Batch of 2 targets.
Target 1
Amino acid sequence: MTSEAYLPAWALVQQLKRGETTSRALLERMLERVARVNPGINAIILQDAPRARAAADAADAALGRGEPMGALHGLPMTVKETNNVAGWPTTFGDPAFRDEVPTRSAEIIRRLEAAGAVIFGKTNVPINALDWQSYNAIHGTTRNPWNPAHSPGGSSGGSAAALAAGLTPLELGSDAGGSIRIPAAFCGVYGHKPTPGQVPGEGNGRGSLLDNDLVTSGPLARSVKDLALALDVLAGPAGERAKAWRLQLPHARATQAREFRVALLETSPVAEVAEEYRAAIRALGEKLRGMGAQVSLNVLPFSDHAAHHAAYVQLLRGSGVARLPEPAFQAAIAETEQAASNATPYVRQMAAAYAQRHRAWLQAEEYRAGLKRDWAGFFEEFDVLVAPAAMGPAFPLDEARPREERTLRINGRDADYNDTLFWAGIATLPSLPATTAPIGFSAAGLPLGVQVLGPAWEDRTTLAFAAVLEALLPFSPPPGYA
């Protein structure tokens, strides 16, 4: 029997509709669990119980009056700290922004609340949302419920940890460098990075009015059905575009395993994957073949992994240069001008991205445009690509070294921590949707998850395939949390 703390969001909404519980009762139950469980993992770093209670009571009163219910009517939930909620701090974990309090909520927060969600708190992130660990000087360290000595991922690490620990039924994250996909995989939950442009970013910017199509917000949950439920609430044009445009996502290409044409990728020469993780992916391929799926191993629409990775880092890091402090910008220029350097390849790539000329930027965008064309052709032959979400399962916490100096132990060798970006870029660079789903556990009992990539705008196809994986291995709570 499913513990009440682990009921999916859709089931809780149904209970509310049928009058089997109230929003206030659900909220109080969650607040009690947060008070009891959260201190051990530090996933939720801000709570506003009075505001949430008022919203829950209003939702119950509206239901009592027979008013129409939104898709999330009365559902208590949390959101990632980087989302602007009017009256709550949005710090990005950076002490310099400790006192930043927006007066207006982001569009996606307004959409959640318009659908009836009761947002009662925020979840932790790394400083400036730039790490696959989630710790900062304001709110401290978030720990993985599966092993508190290990990272929950980042930057939506608090989101994934809160879901895995049964502290919230639904979460809102964001992703450019794997920030939804990696935490979901590390914590054994589900996450969806939508096709860019589908979920609006209005009201969530920090210091820039420019769009960045490498970044998108998306849901995390404990079931695929909840991801789809949330995506329907979040997706659609906003602002001036909403005057003329409407979003109508295509139906899933398939829903049964036997109907899918699957490409399976287990490793990369740029970002070697742990052997036990690769073995789990190969075993998944055999299961899918046994269920009638067409499965092809290690096929991609590109062959030069290093060129792909370089273009991604160039555009990802280059997109943040306008907000880079002048001393850091000058240091990047100086690094590129040194004839000899002791910097790691990633640090040199990052400096080159910050200091690049506009011509170099356009050349990278040209490469990207060709990549998108090639992926479109690839998805005429395949329906989905199943790939690792990272180089291995959740790694031990490492706060002693800066990100640029960290390594990961992969197959008995030290790998550059930042090589993990390859697995983020495989979907981010060509603007593809990607859904993360659990597929098993490591020998140490840590979750293993894959990302399911699909054609641009065909998010319902990646979600449908993730539902096939969910039928094989549904979410299970970490030991001691059920």
Note: The two ends are 10 Å apart (CA to CA).
Target 2
Amino acid sequence: MSRTIPRSHIIYTIAIIGFIFTLQVVIPMYSNSSFLGIFADEQTIGFIYMSGAALSILAFLFAPTMIRRLGNYTTAMILICIQIAVFYGLIASTSPVTLTSLFIIQTAVTALISLCLDIFLEVYTDGSSIGAVRGLYTATLNASWVIAPLIGSMLISGNSNFRNTYVAALAMLFPLLYLVYKNFPRFKDPNYYHLSPWQLVKHISSNISWTKLLLANLILQIFYSWMVVYSPIYLNKTIGFNWEQIGIILVVMLLPFPLIQYQLGKLADTKYGEKEIMAIGFAILGISTIFLSFVTVKSVLVWSVLLFITRIGAAAAEIMMETYFFKTVSIRDSAVLGTFRITRPLSYFIAPIIMMVGLLFTSNQNMFAVIGIVSLLGIWPALMIKDTR
């Protein structure tokens, strides 16, 4: 794609691509653990997620070399094709071993495709509007997060038709492949920095705000991963909601992301620094999650409102981290970008450990308090970051 094409056109195109990509990720996401639960217990499910996280982390370590050699466009095309094959296998296979292996592979491939989209967006983002662009992009992706769980719950249509969500995810991959093929065949890669793992650690450590930001992002991702894996099971098995009700709850819960992130991103560009909003977001997130431990009523309205409040905090913290990071990182720093994104698979490794250890001392219900306390820890690194304004 030539840079003579209006930059705004490219950004909107990437946002559409991100929207479709997120649909194929999220439609099966909240039912993945229940699907795995057909042939695995909760502890085994935790180990499966940890294995996917470990493979994702390994993939992120090799991603900069692959992108540097093949180019971001070619890498993205190859990964999408692999994802198509993996989802076909998830639909067609009946072997627990095969299904588990494919699930682990798709976890890593999803993470790498997301990295490629980040690089596309970063190259075409003007330095003076990073907050607004990241806010637009993140809000677009999160609009997909809002509707995808409802689609997924409707496709399940009961308690066992989980493969329908993989069929829908597979269908999303073909327009995704076409849009990347159509818009980026002449994409010009920046001259990516080549850093050894030790050099990368030194490079990141040289910026104290990056290390604090990575810690804050890890804490937020632990909250997300725990909620994705365990909260649907809790709402279904413990509270007693069916999947249609869970779909409604998830839609309401995720509304803060498209509703407030774009506006907060613009505020970070023009009026306020990032760290105060980030810290307030963690405070709202942690306190409201702790409160969930005291809720046992089977009410779609009550759970929707309370989970909505938790995501107000998460949305604020997330967009401030995205805005801050992309204001301070160079487009040539694919390795640093990969390190920032590695917090998500790392969180899928940590969250099951927290769950397993926590259940030795308390109940499923009280695990909301545990995760809420973990979330409150994000206030400290948020306040230690040096604002860009």
Note: The chain has a mean pLDDT of 84.
